[in-house]
Write a structure and sequence with these properties.
Strand order of the largest sheet: 3-4-5-7-6
Shape: globular
Radius of gyration: 11 Å
Order of helices and strands: EEEEHEEE
Number of domains: 1
Number of helices: 1
Strand content: 35-45%
Helix content: 10-25%
C-alpha cells in the first residue's frame, strides 16, 4: 500500500498526482469492496473520483469510484 491511516487502519494502494489533482487507486484481488477508497472520497470533497481495478465488472458508481 502507499498510504495507511494508523487510526482507522484504512489504506490506499496507489496515489498519483496529475495536473495538480490527487487520484487514489485501489487494486483488488479477492474482496472487491473498496471501503478505504469510498471513505477517502467521502471525507475529501476535493478528490472527485478514484479508480478501482478488479477482475470482474466495470463501471462508475455514484460515489465516484471508477471500476476497471
Amino acid at each position: 500500500y502507499f498510504y495507511k491511516n494508523e487510526t482507522t487502519k484504512r489504506e490506499i494502494d496507489v496515489i498519483i498526482q496529475q495536473d495538480g489533482k490527487v487520484i487514489p487507486i485501489e487494486v483488488k484481488s479477492g474482496n472487491t469492496r473498496a471501503n478505504s477508497l469510498k471513505a477517502l472520497l467521502k471525507n475529501n470533497k476535493d478528490i472527485p473520483y478514484g479508480y478501482k481495478f478488479v477482475d470482474g465488472n466495470t463501471g462508475v458508481s455514484e460515489d465516484g469510484i471508477i471500476t476497471l
